[in-house]
Specification:
homodimer, 6-stranded mixed β-sheet, disordered C terminus, Acyl-CoA_Oxase/DH_mid-dom (chains A, B), 624 residues, Butyryl-CoA Dehydrogenase, subunit A, domain 2, pristanoyl-CoA oxidase activity (chains A, B), 20 helices, fatty acid metabolism (chains A, B), fatty acid binding (chains A, B), Butyryl-CoA Dehydrogenase, subunit A, domain 3, alpha+beta
């Protein structure tokens, strides 16, 4: 049963203050309170309100929008605020397990306040803390308690100056010295400096440092994580042998201190190795539960999926904020009109509606996707924690990896383009710093890059789909995945035979129509990409080249269309559940149809071209 | 005869310093010096070098990229730098008349150094100064000399808090008091405050203020410009009755002090009226050489075309800078490779090439367009200055207005999207402030908004084309314009009958192919838009609504396609001139083809749809 307004608390959803938006609000065809309750649930609304009230009433969080804050001051404030968030202790560990969605909800609330704060908190707890917890063992539990009391402050040091995306080329070394039972952490040169590490610039005392583990005789066991103290917690002065510093001003998120570090033969005890995937015994032998380096590597980077899911949800936050600002402005800003005397709100212009409303729909669809994917991730992590080694668990990991690897690009780009559209749609006023659209754009921008460059990540998703197709062709395997996102592909011959027939515009105003077209599109793109890849492989020397030559015109649109289909599918199902309150069905159905049709329309050229090929199968575009 | 390298001076185009780009540079199929000479000409290269050398050697222009400068300090520095530019006196009035392209070249050089400096200089000289010169009369010449000596510093105050695009709704008043022979400048309320005025925030001593001129008996003669002193040049304190201030931090261009002003019954002498389009005689009678308010209004805002052309050229500067940064980075950054040992430059990836190279081509095509449009504008202004009242002069004004009104949107959006792509293509390093991509993006952003919001401006261009079409249909008038940008439309029935036939990819690698497709597209869009507009007019109550309902899907793509065609046409002709050095023909031809095909490809869905309608003329898309 859906929550109802009556079940709510007037204090939980108070009326908006009276103002120039009243006229538009009065014209709404639905109750916004009912929609908020349906979207969030009462418990979550209460949780978010607790957080926002605390921040509103705490002078440490007071600020002037658009203030000219120096870099140092901003970084200092952000650290103090992060510390205060720990003191508030909004989310107990029990609460986290009982209602896991509160984890991203807390991060989102912080992100609504300031991306730099969300990032700083997230990097310390969910990135540094999770890495210690999931890559370490009992001997590292002592760190966990210190993380939550902020006795130590952490960062995650993987990227180097010369290598980000290509993690296998990371060059920091950790040589084991059996005489002292220590590892010697070393940066061979400037290009191997750890780089871009969030929290490292000013405040981190400890880092999870990824380095290549070498045993005596120079046997290399590949990348392993080590916990390394980089600063004295009392003075924040660097530890001996560590050269650490702040990277300076960035395009945004300037409250976050990104840093670099070089290690000059820094000795750390044997126990600093986070030893879940490989360990060195007190006797000086390397042991690992994994058979080969590749498998070990896969596990050590497994945590990246959760980073991508977090980024996805923060991108959605940025889009939500921007679209609310732009729509409210558009409803009150009047410019031109049917006569010189009568001006109308700019929101009345079809142009303004076309620019903004699809992003409103996108915010709803992506918000739902982000929550649902987070719950999938929780399932995966619970499996890991309980030691599930089943084939299903492995498949779930691969599926979530594929969804997160395209979900982060889709959400971060949608937010980036949406915020820019909102900025422009607010005209000159949108360019004033106090109106926040610039900060949102600049703070959202790195979401397109970190935890994997968007374009590079999309290749992960297209590779996943191509792998399934290859198994189908070679072994006759079914398309089947734990979350069922690829199961429709089994019907691809009949899907590709379908023709799209509608008799009126009204027939299209249901996301089921766009959904059917999307399924067709993904089947078509998968077939074409697979053919193109094989053709390239036959005519080229290497797989590497073949894949690169397929990505622009095939792999990339395939990955994006597949993810858009998944987002549309999940939102369509969500708004067509029986539990949706009848009074919300119309508006939710419209949001779902708008997002689906708008997304699909960006593939219009592909759809036309495909239809043309079908109607003249002998004739291919000359360019192909 | 084209200039040759031999004709140049080794000091003018010195070799690049040796470094990691050498390998790529050595592989070039042409001489970059020859290309620079062809693109700019020796005289212009020398002029630009003079400017850059002066700035390089002057400590006032020293700066640290990505430095954390306070708002006040940055604004102060920018003012001092602007003053120094006047002291350098790079461009004499004679030089300006002899080689008018040096005017935008100077602005572009300043823009290459810092957009805020270019804007500050431009606003004082070409916007404030030109307004005084072209809207005033002999009695205002005394101001001109003070402008160039910077004894006074100016701004152009048209926009108000509540009205920007809709200039007719501007509400500041100027009541004439015959008793004292003064005008009383007054802001009736907060919403009528002058707003966003560049230079007004901290430094302007004088403003050209647009206000509605009222004569006794409250007869209103519409908007007129007045020169009003707003600050004491010695103390920079506001004049009595003037409330003036800085608008605070913006998304970019923070060296420029945008400001607001409210006037409380500020009295200015009768002679403050810039009286070219209307005057009040000493006896207290309003006189004007123009018959009606509309015509007067058109003349008073005529200067906006030149603003748009300047913005266009500054957007091109931003794009040039960003693409050079991104391409150089891509040629040196190595990531992944065919084997684990061998990494390749990211520029080798087809994905990176597809992301960046079209923007390189766009920079060349738009740079040429910007120069050629500036020369057209010079012709128009010379006609104005010589009192040319011919029909051709009026037509030239309309054509340039149409080209500038779509040219500014095309260039500013191309730069905006290009800079964002460059930022992302440089990965994390692109997010570091010192690498300048963020500043370029933030500084370019307002180009999409000021001097007319891009989307609003495009309507000017589509209206121009629709007006020509209406004259053709109603009076049988030929499509003919002084710059011939619309003349091809006379052949529209035969153009629309053309079919696109190529037999190989190689056949497409000439911009002539895309040019033919563009002509077809513009003819098609013009016909469809005209039909849609008439259909809307028949079914709707007002022209206002009809136009609004056509803009999104018809008027906007029409205006953009028309402008892209013009850019492609001019660049195509430019690179196919007989004077192009043979050694440059291949590379210039490729740039021209790449820009044309890339631009055209964004209309692919439209082209497919149009073809489909042609092959089944009875069948229209159900949605239309």
């Amino acid at each position: 049963m859906a929550p109802t307004v009556e079940g709510g608390d007037a204090a939980l959803l108070p009326e908006f203050p009276r103002g120039p938006l009243d006229a538009y609000r009065a014209r709404a065809s639905f109750s916004w309170k009912e929609l908020a309750l349906f979207t969030e649930g009462e418990d979550m609304l209460r949780f978010k309100k607790t957080i926002f009230s605390a921040l509103e009433n705490d002078p440490l969080f007071a600020r002037s929008p658009g203030a000219d804050l120096s870099l140092d001051k901003y970084r200092e404030l952000n650290f103090l605020r992060c510390k205060r968030i720990f003191e508030y202790d909004f989310l107990s560990v029990e609460d986290m397990f009982r209602s896991p969605l509160k984890v991203p909800a807390l991060i989102q609330c912080l992100g609504m306040y300031d991306s730099s704060l969300a990032a700083k908190y997230l990097l310390h707890t969910l990135v540094f803390g999770s890495a210690v917890y999931s890559s370490g063992s009992e001997r590292h539990l002592t760190y966990i308690q210190k993380i939550f009391s902020m006795e130590i402050f952490g960062c995650f040091a993987l990227t180097e100056l010369s290598h980000g995306s290509n993690t296998k080329a990371i060059r920091t070394t950790a040589h084991y010295d059996p005489a002292t039972k220590e590892f010697i952490i070393h940066s061979p040169d400037f290009e191997a400096a750890k780089f871009w590490v969030g929290n490292m610039g000013k405040t981190a005392t400890h880092a999870v440092v990824f380095a290549k583990l070498h045993m005596p005789g120079d046997q290399c066991h590949g990348l392993h994580p080590f916990i390394v103290q980089i600063r004295d917690p009392k003075t924040l002065l660097p530890m001996p042998g560590v050269m650490v510093g702040d990277m300076g001003k960035k395009l945004g998120q300037n409250g976050l201190d990104n840093g670099f570090a070089m290690f000059h033969k820094v000795r750390v005890p044997r126990q600093s190795l986070l030893n879940r995937m490989g360990d060195v015994t007190p006797e000086g032998t390397y042991v690992s539960p994994f058979k080969d380096v590749r498998q070990r590597f896969g596990v050590s980077l497994g945590g990246l999926s959760s980073g991508r899911v977090s980024i996805l949800s923060l991108a959605v936050v940025n889009l939500k904020l921007a679209i609310a600002i732009a729509l409210r402005f558009s409803a009150t800003r009047r410019q031109f009109g049917p006569t010189q005397e009568e001006e109308i709100a700019v929101l009345e212009y079809p142009m303004q509606q076309c620019r903004l409303l699809p992003y409103l729909a996108a915010a709803y669809a992506l918000d739902h996707f982000s929550k649902s994917l987070f719950l999938d991730l929780v399932e995966l992590q619970r499996g890991h924690a309980s030691g599930d080694c089943s084939a299903r668990q492995a498949e779930l990991g691969r599926e979530i990896h594929a969804l997160a690897s395209a979900g982060k690009p889709l959400a971060s780009w949608t937010a980036q383009q949406g915020i820019q559209e909102c900025r422009e749609a607010c005209g000159g006023h949108g360019y004033l710093a106090m109106n926040r659209l610039g900060v949102l754009r600049d703070d959202n921008d790195p979401n397109c890059t970190y935890e994997g460059d968007n374009n590079v990540l999309l290749q992960q998703t297209s590779n996943y789909l191509l792998g399934l197709r290859a198994r189908r062709v070679q072994d006759g395997a079914c398309f089947r995945s734990p979350l069922k996102s690829v199961d429709f592909l089994n019907a691809y011959p009949s899907i590709l035979d379908q023709k799209f027939e509608v008799s009126s515009v009204a027939d299209c105003l249901d996301s089921a129509v766009a959904l059917a077209a999307y399924k067709w599109l993904v089947c078509y793109l998968l077939r074409e990409t697979y053919q193109k890849l094989n053709q390239e492989k036959r005519s080229r020397s290497s797989d590497f080249e073949a894949r690169n030559n397929c990505q622009v015109s095939h792999g990339r649109p395939l990955a994006l269309a597949f993810l858009e289909l998944t987002v549309v599918q999940r939102f369509h199902e969500h708004v067509h559940q029986p539990c949706v309150p009848p009074s919300l069905r119309a508006v939710l159905g419209r949001l779902s149809a708008l997002y689906a049709l708008w997304s699909l329309s960006r593939h219009a050229a592909l759809l036309y071209r495909a239809e043309r090929r079908r109607s003249c199968p002998g004739r291919r575009d000359r360019s192909s």
